[in-house]
Amino acid sequence: MKSYESKREGDKKGRAHVMEIELEKAYPRSPPSISADVPYTLHLEWSVNSRLKHVVQQFQEHLEKLQEFWCVLDNIDKSLWVVYPKEPSQATSCREIKLGNDCSIVLSVNVNDPRSLPVSFYGFRSDCKLIEKEVEEK
Questions:
Q1: What is the pTM of this model?
Q2: Is 127 helix (H, G, I), strand (E, B) or coil?
């Protein structure tokens, strides 16, 4: 029989994160399964001596590694006209930004290098061409 537990953790910026922990009947000989609203899964280090407090500690360390990623996304969400996703989860790494004149860009934030922002332009080619040229020049 499996059992489930939810833990709510806050990060340094006050963002709330919920971690779902699934315990197999072989627990603690086998590690729990973890799911959370993060861009990539936590690789859990586990031994027969490990306990749930170790899972929570590793999750907190995982959240710490993602701080710059979330700060970049927070700045995008606050500063630009994000049209998609309307209500992004903390696992979502892309944003579609409306530029006007039927042109938008999609920013894909790399979890490992959040300050490098690959850009893709969408819309009528003639409308996007001028904006795309300006971005390339800068």
A1: 0.80
A2: helix
Helix (H, G, I), strand (E, B) or coil at 68: helix
pLDDT tens, position by position, 36-77: 999 998 899 999 899 989 999 999 999 999 999 999 999 999
Buried (b) or exposed (e) across 41-71, using 16+ Cβ within 10 A? ebebeeeeebeeeebeebbbebbeebeebbe
Neighbouring C-beta atoms of residue 39, cutoff 10 Å: 16
Query: 118 Cβ partners below 8 Å, 6+ apart?
Result: 107, 108, 110
110 half-sphere exposure, CB direction, 13 A CA radius: 7
Rounded to whole angstroms, the Cα distance separating 91 from 84 reads: 14
Strand 103-108 and strand 119-123: the pairing is antiparallel
